[in-house]
Amino acid sequence: MDKLNWEFTGMEHDLESILLTGEQIQSRVRELANLIAEDYMADGGMDARGPVVVCILKGAVMFYADLIRFMPIPISIDFISISSYGSKTASSGEVSLKKDLDGKIEGRVVLIVEDIVDSGLTLSYLLRMLSARNPRSLKVAALLDKPSRRRVPFQADYIGFAIEDKFVVGYGLDFDQLYRNLPMIGVLKPECYEP
Ligand code: 5GP
Questions:
Q1: 145 lines ligand 1 (CB under 6 A)
Q2: Running along the chain, 195 residues long, what does each successive block of 10 average in pLDDT?
Q3: How far is the CA of 11 from the centre of ligand 1 (A)?
Q4: What string of DSSP letters covers 139-168?
Q5: pLDDT the model gives residue 166
Q6: Could you tell me if the CB of 117 is within 6 A of ligand 1?
């Protein structure tokens, strides 16, 4: 039924290939959720309130919702929104804060959840900004990683999948705000973004 619906909208036809199916994503996200929860429990680095898990809006929203749903530990949630400037398929590295966290993170265990690490500039900026607030610890979980695109050294603590240098959409990732609600991740056909 799902398949018919997606075909009907035509969104799936804009994909040149499907890189990760919904099932592959779900299975890896559950693994990551357990791994993260075990690490926090094992290193004794968790206070009674557990980590503050921060979603970077909007791209990480699907990953975030699935990840926290399968983390069997107490957590608090918070959201941050940043915008990066550049072309529609590559960021320039200039980043600005659109919405800050609601809560304070001083002395707290913090996990940042991001959709994809590309140049590494967004997360480097964010880590610098949040470290200055003196959290007890600060880690990053990213669903996707494009290591070949780095412009600054950056290594996330948890990675779902390392992928090639292709522009991908789906499962939260957009092109011009479209495709975020696809359950899979695919490579967008160049004719969909090239003029
Ligand atoms: P960075 O600062 O690491 O270059 O870029 C991170 C941001 O660029 C991601 O949060 C994401 O919004 C965007 N981005 C990087 N690669 C892709 C991609 O392949 N597809 C989409 N939709 N966004 C991407």
A1: no
A2: 57 89 97 96 76 97 98 96 75 83 96 96 94 97 96 96 96 94 93 81
A3: 20
A4: EEEEEEE-GGG-SS----SEEEEE--S--E
A5: 93
A6: yes
pLDDT for position 1: 47
Q: Is residue 5 situated within a structural domain?
A: no
Positions annotated as catalytic residues are 118
**Tell me, what amino acid is at 67?**
L
Ligand 1 center from residue 59 Cα (angstroms): 8
| Tokens standing for residue 82 | 């940043």
What pTM was estimated for this model as a whole?
Answer: 0.93
Supply the pLDDT for residue 85: 66
Domain of 84? 21-168
- What three-state secondary structure class fits 71? coil
**Residue 29 belongs to a domain:** yes
CATH number at residue 131: 3.40.50.2020
Ligand 1 centroid to residue 19 C-alpha, Å: 16
3-state secondary structure (DSSP) of residue 75:
coil
Atom of ligand 1 nearest to the CA of 60: 10
